[in-house]
């Protein structure tokens, strides 16, 4: 194990020893290759550079208290990457190949897996890009899928605690029939300006309404929204929202806890009716929301009046994390143990 201050890791990039790659040429995927380089050769006219022909994923490996390393729902990440590839006219990487690449990149970088007691994890970033040159707007003929891994701490400084969000009405992350439900770089590029604006004003992230009517809750920055109202778990239904694997997992756990699940359009006017609210995704799992400030109207929607995470989201957070770290049995078969 590397000599790293594991308990004080930020959510950022740290060089590790190896990454893995596979190339698509002549209509077929090749063999998985290992590389110790942080760079890759690329044609100056590659379609990923000019036309955004790329998709990516994010998943984590966790060191359990039993000394076993678990990866969370990697087959679901593989399938979501396939969905993004289909929409961007890129060849779909087989699920088995994706999973083998995950296993290999974890094993190759086993010295960078944070210890259990640190609360950190090994973040895995798969990326699939068009690499062959085109000047006209058309799909590439050749592609590369690569995966690297880096140890990370909490996405938000301070970990599981409430934060404030800034409602940005003047900016949209994605159009209703656009690319919002696919994990492609363009969605994140579209969010950078509003995200920076929110940070400059002291908020943890931005908060979006639907692009068409500005009436419904869309996403919390790059994360799905969760609202708790009594015994109901409420999350938006929209064609522009990324289908979060963590949200899907929390929905399953909440249902097993006896909660009512509501996946529907959520009017922004309903925000003041929630007992608890949060943003969820791979990076943070759940980030509880203290309040949402409409920076154009000056109105503030207080969710957590004592500034602390609520009991329902705290319970869901702990239940999911306990499965990821192997503290409790995994009744859903979500985790895969990686033999190092």
Q: What is the topological layout?
A:
Layout: E1 19-25, E2 28-29, E3 33-35, H1 47-50, E4 54-56, E5 59-63, E6 69-72, H2 74-87, H3 95-108, E7 121-130, E8 143-152, E9 163-167, H4 185-200, E10 205-207, E11 224-229, E12 232-236, H5 245-256, E13 260-264, E14 276-281, E15 285-294, E16 300-302, H6 311-324, E17 335-338
Which range does the strand content fall in? Answer: 25-35%
CATH architecture of the largest domain: Alpha-Beta Barrel
Gyration radius (Cα, Å) is 20 Å
Distance between the termini: 13 Å
Structural class: alpha+beta
Which stretches are low in confidence, meaning pLDDT under 50 for 5 or more residues running?
A: none
Q: Indicate the CATH topology of the largest domain.
A: D-amino Acid Aminotransferase, Chain A, domain 2
């Amino acid at each position: 194990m590397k000599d790293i201050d594991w308990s004080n890791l930020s959510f950022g990039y740290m060089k590790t020893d190896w990454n893995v790659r596979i190339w698509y040429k002549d209509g077929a995927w090749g063999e998985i290759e290992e590389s110790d380089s942080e760079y890759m050769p690329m044609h100056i006219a590659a379609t990923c550079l000019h036309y955004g022909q790329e998709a990516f994923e994010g998943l984590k490996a966790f060191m359990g208290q039993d000394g076993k390393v678990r990866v969370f729902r990697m087959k679901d990440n593989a399938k979501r990457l396939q969905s993004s590839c289909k929409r961007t006219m890129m060849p779909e990487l087989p699920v088995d190949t994706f999973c083998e690449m995950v296993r290999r990149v974890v094993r190759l970088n086993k010295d960078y897996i944070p210890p259990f007691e640190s609360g950190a994890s090994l973040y895995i970033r798969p990326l699939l890009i068009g690499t062959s040159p085109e000047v006209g707007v058309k799909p590439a003929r050749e592609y590369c899928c690569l995966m690297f891994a880096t140890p990370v701490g909490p996405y938000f400084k301070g970990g599981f605690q409430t934060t404030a969000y800034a409602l940005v009405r003047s900016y949209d992350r994605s159009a209703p029939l656009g690319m919002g439900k696919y994990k492609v770089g363009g969605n994140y590029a579209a969010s950078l300006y509003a995200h920076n604006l929110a940070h400059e004003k002291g908020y943890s992230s931005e908060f979006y309404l639907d692009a068409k009517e500005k009436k419904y809750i869309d996403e919390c920055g790059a994360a799905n929204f969760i609202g708790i109202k009594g015994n109901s778990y409420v999350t938006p239904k929209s064609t522009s929202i990324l289908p979060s694997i963590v949200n899907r997992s929390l929905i399953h756990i909440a249902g097993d806890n006896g909660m009512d699940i509501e996946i529907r359009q959520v009017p922004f006017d309903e925000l003041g009716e929630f007992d608890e609210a949060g943003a969820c995704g791979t990076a943070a799992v759940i980030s509880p929301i203290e309040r949402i400030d409409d920076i154009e109207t000056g109105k503030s929607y207080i969710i957590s009046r004592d500034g602390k995470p609520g009991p329902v989201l705290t319970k869901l957070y702990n239940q999911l994390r306990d499965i990821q770290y192997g503290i409790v049995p995994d009744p859903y078969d979500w985790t895969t143990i990686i033999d190092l």
